[in-house]
Amino acid sequence: MQPPAEMVHWLFATGFLVLGLCLLAEVIVGTAVWQRRAWRAYLWPGVLFGMGLLLWPVMVFFTSSTIHMLAHGSWAQVMMLAGAAQLAVVRGKLQSPLWALTLSLALAVSGLAFLVHEQNGWFFARSAFLHHLLGWIALGAAVFPLGKAFRPRAAVFNAGFALTVVVVAVALYCDRDVAPVFGHLSPLAGEPHR
Amino acid sequence: MTARARALGLLGPATALAGVVWAVLQPYRITLLHPHDQGFWWLAVEPPLLVVAVGLLFHLLIVPGLLEDLEVE
After folding, report:
1. Contact A136/A115 with Cβ under 8 angstroms?
2. Distances (CA, A) of B19 to A49, A85, A147, B13
3. What is d(CA B37, CA A41) in angstroms, rounded to the nearest whole number?
4. Which of A108, A90, A109, A110 is nearest to A99 (CA)?
5. Which residues contact A106 (CB under 8 A, 6 or more apart)?
6. A-chain residues within 8 Å CB-CB of B69?
7. Is the confidence metric ipTM above 0.90 for this complex?
8. Which chain B positions have a beta carbon within 8 Å of A22's beta carbon?
9. Which of A1, A30, A31, A111 is the most exposed place for a label (fewest CB within 10 A)?
10. Which residues, in sequence order, are bridge partners of residue A181?
């Protein structure tokens, strides 16, 4: 009784939306206020780590080829690494702001994995378009946590990272099984579903 | 109320509103409106409703404490 693949995307989109709202709230109130309550400080790193963990069953049950398996496995690893590093930073076990580089690594690896494992062109079908879009968004947005690592208080990097996560959520919500994108759907993609 | 508090107070409602607008624009995504012959997952996972739920839960569970702490600050 597995959910259809697009629903897995929608559930992860919901996780990214939660993550994005928490990050935006932290940008608005500042890290000191956000971390005033312990449960709140652990919230978004915990969500990130949890989503990385949940990518493992996705890798096992939803991948149809080796390259898909490798892509999902690499996402799981880098998301867990980034989440765990941020949890340790919040806990005080890790001190350096350079640990934000794990977020940058997560975005860069995710972007590359999206682009490498999508075999079709941009307008083949909606899922192909979203893979290309998400890949380039993730690759480009890796600059935000990179900047955050060297200038942790710069609002532009924190806000950019938070908005990136929200955009990723929106893109994941757009996923459908077989659907056209801007009126394009390759006949090789199959019959469009609902 | 400060600009920060106002912005914070808008995050959840704006998210929930986005979900409502989405539901109006694409009502076929709300399978509860036509539940016959739908499987479990199609009834359990309805993206516009998920967006509304996230916005509301964020506003009700996270924002009040944040506003209190922001005021103390």
Report:
1. yes
2. 26, 32, 32, 10
3. 44
4. A90
5. A78, A79, A81, A82
6. 29, 33, 36-37
7. yes
8. 58, 62
9. A1
10. A184
Task: Provide the residue count of chain B.
Answer: 73
Q: How far apart are CA A153 and CA A167, in angstroms?
A: 22
Annotate B37-73 with DSSP letters as a single string: T--HHHHH--HHHHHHHHHHHIIIIIHHHHHHHHHH-
CA distances from B59 to A28, A47, A150, B48, B49 (A): 14, 17, 32, 17, 15
Instruction: Determine the residue type at A64.
Output: S
What's the pTM? 0.92
Enumerate chain A positions whose Cβ falls within 8 A of a Cβ in B.
1, 3-4, 7, 10-11, 13-14, 17-18, 21-22, 24-25, 28-30, 32-34, 36-37, 40, 43, 173, 194
Residue B49 tokens, joined: 């409703």
